[in-house]
Amino acid sequence: MTMNRTENSFFRKTRKNAIVKQVREHYIRPDIPCLSELCSRTPPCHLRVVADSTLLSAEATHYLIPDLSVVSRYLEILEQEELSNLVIAQTIMASLEQHDRLRTYRRLRQVTSDPRRRSVFFYNEIFSETYVARLPNEGQKEREWRALCRVAAWYHHHLNGLLPILLLSENFTQSDLTSQESSVGIVVCSVKQYLDRFWPGCAVLHELMGSLKDAVFEEDLTLERIRMTGKVGELLKKSNVGEPGYEEYKAADELEAGVKSGRYFQGVLRVSPSNRDQAYINGGSKIGGDILIIGNRHRNRAVHGDVVVVELLSENSWTVPANSMSYDLDMAKAAEEVGEQLARQSSEIRPTGRVLGVITRNWRSYVATVQEDAIDQGGNVLLTIPLDPIIPKIRVRYGDVRAISRQRIVVRIDSWPTTSQYPNGHYVRSLGPIHQLDTEISAILVEHEISVSQATQGFSEASLREMPEDTQQNPWKPDPTELKRRRDLRETHTVFSIDPPNCQDIDDALSVRDLNDGTVELGVHIADVSYFVKENTQTDLEARARGTTVYLADRRFDMLPAVLSERICSLRGNVDRFAVSIMWTLDQSYNILSTWFGRTVIRSACEMEYEQAQKLLNGAKSVEGLDQSLAQKLRQPILRLAEVLHVFKARRSAKGALELESSEVKFRMEEGQGINDIIPKDPKEIHKIVEEAMILANSSVAERIYQSYKDSALLRRHPLPVRDHFKMLEKAAASRGLSIDYSTNKSLADSLASCAQQYQNDREFIRLIKTMATMAMSEAGYISTGAFNIDQYHHYGLALDFYTHFTSPIRRYADLVVHRQLMACINGSRAATPEISLESRHTSLFLHNAKLSDLCDHLNRKTRASKLAQRSQQGPIIENGVISEIRANGFLVFVPRFGIKGPVYLKDKDGNPVVPTSLLSGNQEEDSTYISNCTLSISPPTTISVQIHGSPLPIIFGLFDKVRISLKLHMSHAHRHSVYMTLIGLHQSEPAIKKTIGERQLLPEITEGERHRLQRFTIENVAESGLDTFVFRQTEVDNSAYGLLEKFRRMAIIELGNG
Ligand SMILES: [Zn+2]
What we know:
Oligomer: single chain
Largest sheet: 5 strands, mixed, barrel
Number of helices: 36
GO biological process, one term: nuclear-transcribed mRNA catabolic process
Bound molecules: zinc ion
Radius of gyration: 32 Å
Shape: globular
Pfam families: OB_Dis3 (PF17849), RNB (PF00773), Rrp44_CSD1 (PF17216), Rrp44_S1 (PF17215)
GO molecular function, one term: enzyme binding
Protein name: DIS3-like exonuclease 1
GO cellular component, one term: nuclear exosome (RNase complex)
């Protein structure tokens, strides 16, 4: 290959305004590919270079080349999913780099790395056919423009003029082209002209362009500030000291030097969800905990999530973090706080600081509502109130206030000048009218950074075209050639699946049989999704972008089209299905002798429900829904399965596996009515057995792929807990005379077991302690083996050295990647079938560590996002709770049934007692009238006592006391309807109440209250579990259930078991 070297020099202004000359050696290559499906060469020029990169589509009507002016101002338009087939020239990227506009750079990179966008990065600056040398006295802008024109002309010729090449520019027009370029059909247009011509009906794009036109971006402000150095800058600063007058940020290199020397501290700014006036960053080992940042002035325009540099304030302003719960605290935030505050609750004096500068902005799209009084005032600058209360109000310019006044809208922050109380942003799009179901769902998705199109649009045409046929007339049948390549288990193995009722997407099935030589063969069979979804097909790209199936209470957003997820991949009963099977041969003590991995064909004997399998396990003679002979056939395998997996579970427990609380709830749906019920998940023995089988499969696969891919296996690890996070739990447990040792998973498991032992009659307390332990743990995440040392692969919660996600390929993209890795491993040791060898050609994905790490990050984000969204759901009403924290103005109550936590206030904002009358009367209707003659004495962290005048003894609320609370809906315009808690009384079984007020006086009221409750709710007695389980139903259809349900969303917990 011939390469030419040239030298490329330019002047660069540093952030401190020094001018430096940079010289770059420049290598020119002759072989840069066009990356278009329309390539006119045979073979296409991209084949030589990259196997799996995104290509510009052959079906496009034009290709788009944006220039720097468009990228700077209208990047967000380019980011909209409507636009595709962009050619991002290296010229643009180099220019962004040179001007330190790394955020813009990264966002553009994201566009080209999303395969659905069909957009490419084109290395024009190192390509001999497109390189443009700078002419003497030519400005940088002009040279860049010529370079882009050259790119456009090159594409035009290379693709034989098959489609128009558009140059997008705000600075140049058609008349800036050479006559030759013009004559071959290259078109220059502005963003407005482009949208008018190609997207005339797309209101979203036009509105967005309108709001971006006037936006002032932070980058522009910074450049402005750099330009106005010295006295001019000082003058400007002075003249702008209006209120609130934030301080300018220090220059980047000054901040950097300060952090290096230890004078300043760098960290991610977190705003306390329970008290928004307080934010903090982790001060690292030198500070030994958090640095508090109190008030807006010290926060200095930093927004939750920004990476900031902080300077400590003088020691006399250090303070104890506020202990009161703020009054607009909602339950979701309170729940989130459990995890945060565990680490941060402190009665010690903490250092305080102020923000000197922002290293990285972490602004995202926010769902917001127009502030109500803005509507009367008119004018076109509005204040919008983000749904997430820790985000400040955002100023937005919009022409027609009334049009969006009752809508949920998406806004983005652009800049926050020192003179402005609130950040400036722009309107992006409307999600629809407030409190409408579809709007609220879209809002949840935007807030969790899940693409709205996943919710609103189905799968693309292109992806549906790839689907195999499966209709009534022509049902899908296994291909006979493919059948021959697979191990056939249809006649030899009794395979069955165990799932919740009405499960459509059955990922996994099981089998177990005794072999003649006294050994036992255990099988886990997983849907062979990787056979149907080949890498880099349209379906694969969409699945990757979706990342996971998102389950909301009454609907789900699939990762794969229904024909795969519900039918052809789903391991349904009595039909032939392709599977990837793992079969362990076990000796008589159930030690693993050997493990077989491979592709199989199965025919499941039965789609069992958990309930049915549990009944078989309990020895029931007949089971509803199973015919006699089937029950007979399945009983023995179920019993054997239980026996085997109990042994495996016991072994894992001996190694320190944790039994934690998941606080998972499930929703009962009624056709056409939405959610009408919420019930806690109550794991039965059979759940744990199935889960153990999946854990075994996942860990066996993890070990297998690690053997073959030491540097690039996709594993899932769960790191050791962070010491600080356990402090609160330790304290809480200590108040009951318990000790929690979390030095190893084994010791933690032992301490939790001993708590459970000592308090075996107090299930709520045990549940609270376990939940606190769960939340104090680190989160599990995906890793690529190359990025970590082997001693860091460990899964702490499950007590396993290797773990991965393999068993849910229909619902999680990570599992699909792992399937491909496993298939490639097997292929390495056996003769390649054509189909497998095709896959291994694409193993470049796994071998490319950086790429896999990106994918890991993406999956981590998506998994968390979908978990949060799942919890965005709720229901009623009167419940038992446990006091989990005492605060200066009330306490936080943990409700084990829903796994949520919320504030109960005993003092109002002015410090007056607000102790509900219901505490005395037991009447739940009286929870918002207050006892007038009482005094409170509060002594955190242990007790609050309420002295009612005339009563001999105070009512004392202590940590871990049980209370009855009422969950109610609060209607809100700006925010979602929220749930709040009020205190009804002490738990009946709690002796304190009788002791305090006198049994005889209270009993009638309590009984009255009970009767009331019985009328409102149906009670189901679930005899099997030996527990009285209440199944609550709402009395009226509540169509704002989504608003309510949202409040459960923050209880994201590390996964358990199969997680
Ligand atoms: Zn080509």
